[in-house]
Amino acid sequence: MPRRPPSARARGLGAELRDLRAGHSLTSRSVAAQLGWSPSTLSRLENGLRGIGVEEVAALLVVYRVTGAERDRLLALARDIDRPGWWETGLPGLPNQLSALIGFESQASRIVDVAMLLVPGLLQTADYARAVMVDGGVAAHEVEPRVVTRLGRQTVLSRPDPPDLHVLLDEGVVRRPVGGPDVMAGQLRHIVALGRRPAVTVQVIPFGVGAHLGVHGSYVALDFEKSSSIVHLEHLRSSLFVDEPEDVRPFLDAVDTLAGQALDPTGSAEFLEAAADAYERR
Q1: CB count, 10 Å around CB of 29?
Q2: Cα separation of 197 and 192, whole Å?
Q3: Do 179 and 128 form a contact (C-beta atoms < 8 A)?
């Protein structure tokens, strides 16, 4: 059975506790020994890979000599670890991996989506999302709730402090007429409009580049202020998170290469506008 992905809240709290330990120049082994824990238990807590209770956080704060308002804040975070986000309520059967991805999006400081097949969920219009689900065989009674969930994810881009979103869009995504010409025209103009936001960058990788690192598959890379980057890979009936730094690094390096091969944001907007015009003429 695949490991349930860690929650965004657990990773964030774990990273703060790790920073406190490092700030006191303490090793995980010495802290674990003081508390009667194994070093692996502390490591899993700091990486968000194990549930953490208020009592455990309180014990660590004693070791790190944290008091007052900062102690109250960290204990409040611990109490909220298992509080469900909007994506974890109201839609039975939402896959664990998708719930985790939405949670990570809500906590990320930067999101990079290398999209080879479809417009990324954070940029999809309702009509495009609906067409993807209908053509993908989603049961009729599940389509609209899933569209609502997908659009709900996009509110992260409208926050006062949105994450930086960088989308690398293969030309094949632009040319694939999901939902028909009218839907595609609206979708492409929507991407252009979002690309004008300061926190959103969209680049198109044209066919003329030939084979490139993205042809190996789509993925989403997420950076966080206080924890290490992760990568999300999605397939037909499964998905997984890559979180070991040595495994994540090649994906991040590929982003730099692809960004250099893609059209710049201005050229990409012009490309998308021209493609939208072409769809509208059909």
Answers
A1: 12
A2: 9
A3: yes
pLDDT at site 86: 47
d(CA 130, CA 180): 12
Task: Give the largest CA-CA distance in the chain.
Answer: 72
| Domains of the chain (ranges, CATH numbers) | 8-79 (1.10.260.40), 95-281 (3.30.870)
How far out from the chain centre does Cα 260 lie? 22
> Cα–Cα distance between 181 and 23 in angstroms, integer?
57
Q: For residue 40, how far is the Cα from the chain centroid?
A: 27
Is 70 exceeded by the pLDDT of residue 87?
Answer: no
**How far apart are the C-alpha atoms of 66 and 79, rounded to whole Å?**
17
CA dist 47 → 8, 159, 230, 238 (Å): 10, 26, 12, 23
pLDDT above 90 for 198? yes
Q: Nearest 10 degrees: CA dihedral of 167, 172, 177, 183?
A: 20
pLDDT band of 5, cuts 50, 70, 90: low
Taking residues 64-68, report their average pLDDT.
90
**For residues 188 and 174, is the Cβ–Cβ distance under 8 A?**
yes
